[in-house]
Amino acid sequence: MITINSIINGIVIDHIQAGHGIKIYNYLNLEDADFPTALIMNVSSTKNKKKDIIKIENDIDLDFKMLGLLDHNITVNIIENEIIKEKIKLSLPKKVENVLKCKNPRCITSVEKYVTHVFNLVDEEKGEYRCEYCDEIVTI
Amino acid sequence: MLKGRSLIDPMDLSIEELDEIFKLADNIMEKPKDYEKIAFGKILATLFYEPSTRTRFSFETAMLRLGGQVVGFSEPNSTSVSKGETVADTIRVVGCYADIVAMRHPKEGAPKIAAMYSEVPIINAGDGGHQHPTQTLTDLLTIKNIKGKLTDSTIGICGDLKFGRTVHSLIKALSRYKNNKFILISPNELKIPDYIKKEILQKNNIEFVEAHKLEKVIGDLDILYMTRVQKERFFNEEDYIRLKDSYILDKEKLELAKKDMIILHPLPRVNEIAYEVDDDPRACYFKQAKFGMFVRMALMAKLLGVA
Fold first, then answer.
1. Poorest-pLDDT segment among A92-96, B16-20, B30-34, B189-193
2. Does the residue A3 lie in any domain?
3. CB contact under 8 A, B108 and A104
4. How close B128 gets to chain A, by Cα (Å)?
5. Which member of B86, B130, B195 has the closest CB to residue A112?
6. Which residues of A touch B8 (CB under 8 A)?
7. What CATH number does the domain containing A113 carry?
8. Are B195 and A134 inside 8 Å of each other by CB?
9. Which residues of B174-194 are buried (b: 16+ CB within 10 A; e: fewer)?
10. Phi, psi (rounded to 5 degrees) for B183
11. Under CATH, what is the fold of the domain B10-132+292-304?
12. The domain that contains A72 carries what CATH number?
């Protein structure tokens, strides 16, 4: 059993799909952080058997839209004085801009480079988004 | 209020706005002289980034019959577009010269980008395999005037349902009228895209069936909408040659159809409707082309705010 101390002030990103923790850790650039962080992998979970957790001993800005897109099962716990002050359950964002790219070769975004790539959520369960311009569906 | 608006997707217009346009089109058909000068001093720019004869002529004659004038290109190689100008820049410049723009573009979503940057109304005259809203207005006006209703019909759509932009727009539009049912007839390779099935048909609980053989379902139809298997939508010629003759309407198949079924086609046809069918009273595709010009007259008059 590995023991990792609880944090006093900071953030715990919980319920990350097992194996995806490293992706989120890298996205948040935590490897270069000058404050304590921990990536805990393959923790037992009642919901999905295994999960990953990230602990951050600092108050940092998180882009919940982007995090939701990376893994919409995530829960973000804001910790103050060792107490969970706020629990934020993430979900897939309704609209994303310049995150996903349309793969339809006939889409205008494939040639006009200045255009903002916009996708709207059409099916939350299946993680399906539709391109604002050509209606092509992409699955997360 | 339609004045100053753009038309990119057939769903941009409410049923009430569609009715308003159809009513004006009927009035123009009845008394064309009353409308021959209403767009005097107005200029239509036709920006056709891919070849089209009838849609462009339909827009241009519609504007001329309203008393307006027309500028434009039908081939982008002779314009600044060939130097790499973006749609956004082209439209901002053209908007300084013209009062309304009809745009056809091979890339899907191009007219939507144009509308985002334009100061004048943009009409999508076809974008890739995506939408063709004025063809939809044409189809609806034709059905309404010949069948007398836009509801309670079984509509068969046959041919290229994957890349056929007129088909996607028509399904969207007819789905808003009650008790319509669709029979979608195509080879597997050219089936209707998933987003039309999911977001339009299934979402609105509209009855639809996918079929492979026209002769098996033609007897159930009130409206048969034929489409061309378009060569320019294929990435390789072998696929095109294999599929182009799959769905041909001839006299033999037509004998199985109802006596009051109507046959529509966005034109041009290649060989999907045999010439022998043209004399049948159910063949309405040339009348449809005429309705197309009148509905474009009505649409432009409304977007310009002159009627």
1. B189-193
2. no
3. yes
4. 7
5. B86
6. none
7. 2.30.30.20
8. no
9. bbbbeebbbbbbbbeebbbbe
10. -120, 115
11. Rossmann fold (3.40.50)
12. 3.30.70.140
| Residue B10 preceded by cis peptide, ω within 30 | no
Are A81 and A100 found together in one domain?
no
Q: Which domain holds residue A123?
A: 95-139
Please judge whether A134 and B130 are an interchain contact, meaning their C-beta atoms are less than 8 angstroms apart.
Answer: yes
The residue of A97, A106, A121, A137 whose CB has the most chain B CBs within 10 angstroms, and thus the best one to mutate to test that interface, is A106
Alpha-carbon distance of A132 to A136, in angstroms, equals 8
Q: Do B109 and A133 touch (CB under 8 A)?
A: yes
Q: Name the strand (E) or helix (H) holding B138.
A: helix B133-147
- For the stretch B244-302, pLDDT in tens is 666 889 999 999 999 999 999 999 888 899 999 999 999 999 999 999 999 999 999 99
Asked if residue A1 belongs to a domain, the reply is no
* Model confidence pLDDT, tens digit, residues B40-72: 999 999 999 998 889 999 999 999 999 999 999
Token pair in block for residue B125: 């005259």
**Domain residue extents for chain B:** 10-132+292-304, 133-289
